[in-house]
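Collaborator request, handled under Task 6.
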Amino acid sequence: MARDWYRTLQDFFTIRRLWLFPLLAGFFWFLTLTILLVRWLAIGRPQYPGQVNPWVPFISDIAAHQFKPVFIVGCAATGIAFFGTVCAVHHVRYSPKFYGLTNDALWRRIMSSIAEIAGLAAAVTLINLSIFDTDDAHVRHRHLLMGTFGGLFVSAVATTAVWWDQIWGPTVFVGLRKWCLFNTFLVLCQFGCGLAFVILMYEGHYKSSGILEWCLTYMGSLWLSSFVGYIMFREGERPRIENEPERQPLLV
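C-alpha cells returned to the collaborator:
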C-alpha cells in the first residue's frame, strides 16, 4: 500500500508537472487578495480600529478584522506553493532531464541554494504573518512582514542572478530568454514599487502608499506565475539551443 502511494506521488510530481507550483502560487495569492478587496468594497469600505490609512486600508487591516480564516488559508497555500516554485525553478536548471547545466559556476550554485533557503524563510514567515495579525500582535506582525519581504527580496535577487546568463550569455535555450527578461522586469518593478511604498508610508502619504501596496502584491502574483515559462513551455522535451539544427530521423 505504501509503495503504491509512493509510486502515485512519484508519477504526479514528475518534471512535466513542476509548472503547477508557480501557477498555483500566483493563483492562490491573486485569489486571496481579490477576496479581501471585493469583500471590503462590498460592505461599504469601512474603516477599522487602528487603521492609519483613512482612504485605502492596508491588506493587514482587512485581514485582521474580516475573513481572517481566508487570509490564513490563502497565505498557507501561497507559501507552500511558493517554496515549491523556488525549488522547481532551480531544480530544472541542473536536472539532466531538463536544462542539465551541471557544469554551472560555483557561485551560481551557491546563489541557487541561498534562493531556496530564503524562499523557505519567506514561506514560513508569510504563514505566521497571517496568524499573528496586526490587531492582536502588532509588533510581531510588523517583524514578520519585514521578514517576509526580506526573504522574497533575497530569493528573487538570487534567482535572477542565477538565470542572468540566459539573458546575456552565449548559450540561450529556445523560448527561455523572453521569460527571463519578463521575470527580471517584474522584479525591478516590484523593487521600485516597494521602495516607493516604504518612502510614502513613512512620510505620511497613506493614500498613495495604500494603493501602491495593493499594486505591489498583485504584481507579486504575476511574478510568481511568470515562472511557469521557465518550466512548462517545452512540456518536458529535450532543451534545444538556439541555432542548433534539429535532429533528423535516421533512414533505415
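The cover message to the collaborator said: "Residues 8-12, 246-252 have pLDDT under 50 and may be disordered. The radius of gyration is 21 Å. Please let us know whether this matches your experimental observations."
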